[in-house]
Design a protein that fits this description.
Mean pLDDT: 80
Number of helices: 14
Shape: elongated
Strand order of the largest sheet: 6-8-9-11-10
Radius of gyration: 45 Å
Number of domains: 4
Helix content: 55-70%
CATH architecture of the largest domain: 2-Layer Sandwich
CATH class of the largest domain: Alpha Beta
Length: about 475
């Protein structure tokens, strides 16, 4: 079809020159033929352009140069004209073909660069080995019009024997077999896997540019897989370090905080057993009181450890119900009655607040830990305040004291497990961590700060996304109101 088009263009140029034969000089007629040759070269390639050049010279001699309709030349100077015309035509053909080839190479290079850029961009956002493989195969299949697969070794570092060719490439290097190319994915630590590449056209495997680009794709994939492996190994190492640190902290805390009450209980018990006959009733009562208090303290420490374990393992499920906030606070205060002795407690709750949907037992634990924290870090006779307010669609609960406050920089760390701010003679640093876990499970947040007037302030924010049900008292009040109307 292209060669037929070349003949057609030469014929059109000849017809046009025949109509212009009288008014134009022969040199101008040559320009018409050259224009046609440029058109053929730019649209149909080098072969058809050469044919158009030869046919144009022949037509110019046969139809335009006297004697017409014969290839005989009356004036020998036209022979030079024909040679120059043919030379220029062939030169135009060559230059046009070279320009087209350069343009084609530039477009192909741009396409490959764009493909590599798209692959790199998506791989940078990939997380994990599976996502890397999915993205890589998608780009390889689309760009090369081929089927592809990636084989990775198992945990033991060996490739399965399901695909013998892939296994051979994993051990020996690149192979081509049965219309497929098996290319090892090479990383800095060794062979990471094998890329199987099966193009739709068999001859594409042998093309140097295809192999080069495919190797570039494979190197990019191998690098990302290796980074994923290193990241996973780094995460495991960090987790092991964190677990080891947590274990050491736990052992240190338990050995210190549990040893004290145990030693006290043991000492008091030994005294009672050895010298009970020598001790009066008041002294015996005092020792029994010490044993009771230290046993309670020991029990609280163990309970906190168990609570934290349940919260982190997910075994502790929320049992939400609509309850008055003052009842939850009241129950927590009753449990902390002994600890609160000597500390004035002020509770300020909004009258418009009726019910909140929370887990009764867990939120009692929140208030117990916050009250205990306030008692632990403040002097006797200093007041503790619990207040709540409604703001937009949030319930804000604040527990404050008039102690030394929170040490600068510890506002976030105090919610970490086993962290203790300032001087603390008891506890293992789990109370506030338990509070944050419980509040987070309710969809809320807790924040620690210092008051301008001095002392620590803990602010709890709980979302109020649901409308509480009406209580029986409210229903009765509304019924009376409707009746009176």
């Amino acid at each position: 079809m292209a060669y037929f088009a070349a003949l057609l263009v030469a014929a059109i140029a000849t017809v046009l020159n025949r109509s212009l034969l009288s008014p134009l000089d022969h040199s101008n007629l040559i320009m018409v033929y050259l224009l046609g040759i440029v058109y053929v070269a730019s649209n149909f390639g080098r072969g058809p352009s050469i044919l158009a050049s030869l046919v144009s010279v022949a037509c110019f001699d046969y139809f335009c140069i006297p004697p017409r309709y014969t290839f005989a030349v009356a004036d020998t100077q036209y022979i030079l004209t024909f040679v120059i015309m043919l030379f220029i035509a062939l030169l135009i053909t060559g230059l046009t073909g070279e320009i087209q080839e350069q343009a084609h190479l530039a477009k192909e290079k741009e396409r490959r660069t764009a493909a590599l850029h798209a692959l790199s961009r998506e791989l940078c956002l990939a997380r994990g080995e599976e996502e890397i493989i999915f993205i890589s195969l998608k780009h390889i299949r689309t760009f090369f019009d081929a089927t592809a697969g990636i084989y990775l070794p198992d945990k033991n570092g060996t490739l399965g024997e399901e695909n013998e060719d892939a296994l051979r490439a994993f051990k020996e290097g690149t192979i081509i077999k049965s219309g497929s190319l098996y290319l090892p994915l090479k990383g800095t630590t060794g062979i990471l896997g094998v890329l199987q590449f099966s193009p739709a056209a068999m001859q594409n495997i042998d093309k140097l540019e295809t192999l080069t680009l495919l190797e570039t794709f494979a190197n990019q994939v191998a690098m990302c897989i290796e980074v994923a492996h290193l990241t996973e190994a780094g995460n495991k190492a960090n987790l092991q370090i964190e677990q080891e640190l947590l274990r050491n902290t736990l052992l240190s805390s338990i050995s210190h905080d549990l040893r004290t009450p145990l030693a006290t209980i043991s000492g008091a018990s030994d005294t009672l057993l050895a010298d009970s006959a020598l001790l009066d009733a008041d002294k015996q009562k005092e020792l029994l009181q010490v044993i009771s208090e230290e046993s309670e303290r020991l029990n609280e420490l163990v309970n906190k450890l168990l609570d934290m374990t349940k919260l982190e393992s997910g075994l502790l499920k929320l049992n939400k119900s609509w309850l008055p906030l003052e009842e939850i606070i009241g129950a927590a205060v009753n449990r902390m009655e002994k600890r609160l002795s000597g500390h004035p407690l002020k509770i300020d709750l909004p009258t418009e607040l009726t019910l909140v949907e929370i887990d009764e037992i867990l939120f009692q634990l929140v208030f117990q830990n916050l009250i205990e924290n306030a008692v632990k870090y403040t002097n006797p006779d200093t007041p503790i305040k619990i207040q709540a307010k409604l703001e937009a669609e949030e319930l804000i609960i604040e527990v404050s004291d008039q102690g030394p406050g929170i040490r600068s920089g510890d506002e976030e760390q105090i919610f970490n497990k086993f962290f203790q701010s300032g001087k603390s003679s008891s506890g293992i640093g789990l109370g506030l961590a338990i509070c944050r876990s419980i509040i987070s499970a309710h969809g809320g947040t807790i924040k620690a700060s210092n008051q301008l007037s001095g002392g620590a302030l803990f602010s709890i924010r709980l979302p109020l996304t649901k409308t509480p049900p009406q209580t029986e008292i409210e229903d009765a009040h509304l019924s009376d109101k409707n009746t009176s109307c």
